[in-house]
Amino acid sequence: NSNFVTVGNSGTIYTSSDKGTTWDNKTSGTTNTLRGITYANSTFVTVGGSGTILTSSDGTSWDNRTSGTTKNLWEVTYGNSTFVAVGISGTIITSSDGTSWDNKTSGTSKNFKGLTFGNSTFVTVGQSGYILTSSDGTTWDNRTSGTSNFLYGVTYGNSTFVAVGDSGNILTSSDGTSWDNRTS
Length: 184
Known about the structure:
four-stranded antiparallel sheet
């Protein structure tokens, strides 16, 4: 899709068709805060407060989806033919199409705020330095982060996962399993 889409407080959605130079406000149909967004399989998926999930094929018209949870969702990504969303209280949900969602067991009640997919692995990070990994979005394994600080974000690039959090924490991993603390 040639549109850029960003989301925010009170159901805010903006799109740009000119590579981010100008932005147009779109109607989301919700007043819940929207926190994460991804694009895959010709579908935008955004997640947010109270289990809100919206989908769109063009970034302009949005459809409300049933997430199966009332917990706040923080992030969404796509990999291995699966959308995965994470949130508070250990919430993890998955979907093959962005429309129908299934709850998964994370094995924890910790809050998750960061999520990425890379190297055939989903990685989510959050409260108390928790890191979980999964190859399919269904079965999750707890990993040792070496920190008890909240981790807020994680991404994958150049064959490396990078997670960031409170107190200047930066962690790196080549496989999502073993993590090294870096000096910020």
